[in-house]
Amino acid sequence: MAKVLKAKNMAQCIGCYSCMLACARLVHKSLSVRKSAIQIRTRGGLQSRLAAVTCTACRQPSCAAACRFEALTPRKGGGVTFHKDLCIGCGLCVQACTARAITMDEDTNWPIVCKHCGICARYCPHQLLSLEEAETE
Amino acid sequence: MTRDVKVLYIDLTTGKMSRKLRPDLAEYLGGAGIATKLLQEEILPQEDALDPRQPIILATGPLAMIYPSVTKTVAMFKSPLTGELGESHAGMRLATAMRLAGVDAIVITGKSESPCYLSISDQFVGIKNAEPLWGFSVEEVGRSLRELEPGSGHRSCIRIGPAGEKQVSFACVNVDTFRHFGRLGLGAVFGSKMLKAIVITGAHDELVGDRPKYNAIYQELYEKCVRTGAMEKYHELGTPVNIKPLSAMGGLPTLNLQTGTFDQADAISGEAFAEEKLIRKIACPGCPVGCIHVALSRRFFGEGYEVESATVSYDYELIFALGSFIGISDKDAILRLIEDVELYGMDAISSGIILGWVTEAYEKGLISEEVLGTKVAFGAVEGYRTVLRNLVRQPNQFYRDLARGLAYAVKIYGGADFAAVLGGNEMPGYHTGYGSVVGFTVAARHSHLDNAGYSYDQSNVGPVDIEKLTDYLIEEEQIRCALNSLVVCLFARKVYDLETTARALDAAGIPMTVEDLEALGRKIFILKLQIRQSMGFDLRQMTIPKRFFETPTLNGKLDRATADRIMERYLEKVEQLVVNPAN
Fold it and tell me: I need a surface site. Which of B221, B260, B299, B374 has the fewest CB within 10 A?
């Protein structure tokens, strides 16, 4: 079965950014936390709890629907698969995602989209991130 | 291999800026190394620390953000507290933000005509109006800038509170709410330039050297940080784990250093804070350890369960300075004092040490209640809150003098014998032996983190071996000068031994051997010494207050003659090193 990324018990997050750095380093070959499909954010200053902004694995992804070039196609189990050779970098997917989970990579002009590979989860010292079996439809 | 070190120069007097590529600085690596070099270039050693022409240097290192627990930024300046080298390190987001903004170092000189803040990114540098923010507490200015500036999520916001504006000599600079450039008065230097804050953000990216090698070493370091015991204590109870053992051994400065044991140590221990007050732990970005311990303090202020609360981060040094040192065993009272110094933007250690001295000076009749504006007594929090407030408000000459630090105040009001000050800096929380007392005195920034003499004392209990101790103090400070150029958090000191560090640098495209790192540490050590000497520092002029010899350490009572012999030997060895650095 297809697996999807889940973030749970985010109140336990220490904000170490190891997940973001892992996605940037190992998936997007970058050093910058900006180039991560998972974004750890405060809810308003560091006194607040942290939140994980990441692909929620929609069954009917609005990002894919917004893409006129079929560069994003629905993925089994939820979320999307990105086909970079079809992408023109229009950014409509970024606008379409209500979870605000897609950002544009300004260097490549491609969207940074979670592929539910689970690499970030391996670097969470509190095991708050996990890959789970997608629920059957 | 040449590597461009990117330095951003900002002159607040003229508003002129430049971004220079300085490949010549690459040999200093980063952090403490390039900051020392830049300080040497920019400093006016003989002029006042708060002269507008004096520089503020901020520098990160080449491993910042790219390896675990390499999270620190080094600040250098002339200290208004000691009149010599000002150096302070801070964590949280600043190093990451500087890297994302594509700058390795920032040099700020001059003085703005009116309150200002700096907005820095990889695409923009601006000097902006901070007139409405002048007077704001550290918390309020943080909130305002969050709304005013872009880059939510990864930006860093460093700022001063009212203490910095009033140029209190031990004012700190708050970094992202929970960390600080705490010691030696950088906040006052910001205030002297009318600089309220700096917000830094960016999206800069770069390539590292050898990717497979880099990924493998990242993995190795991450495992060491998370899965071995090397850093466990810092996440579990955090630094306050030391309260109980140090008190039991007799090394916890208590009641203005009248004793090294606090009979209420259990009540203010790391365990007690964790069990009753701890609500969350957080980390600096890129550090999987998460050593920052945040406590919740609840306070009822009226009938009908009227309540307010505050969340503040606590550490060993804060609990010692605002707890045992002034006889406070109520955790809520300690948290209240921590919150006060946080909002004013004052160094917690200096504040606590000053309160301890004030208490004894008041008991001995050197200062009156009228001058103080309150009674003070060990353990009584309200009097202390008044003194802290007055250090910022400065209602009379006494407080104006006291705001210049304890070393200055005792020259006017007496009480030098029981002032817990070494090298002009209020003491850190270790009264462990000759390693701490002499170590603090000789160290470049009079900090326990310079040469870890306090650690030597704990692992070498017994009669002092002068040769061994002096060698340790000199060698350890040099190694730390190298690590502080990367800038590794010293809590990860055991993870980043020099051999590992050399491999990590190599994989990041900066080939260096262990010998290179040692030579660099030595070079920085000597350069700092030369800068200090140009500012008038002379170890032979340093006096250690009587109190340090009256109160037994965990290695028993110390005597002045032995301390003098150690300092003499230290001087000889350092002088040899300067003449012949190869040895």
Answer: B299
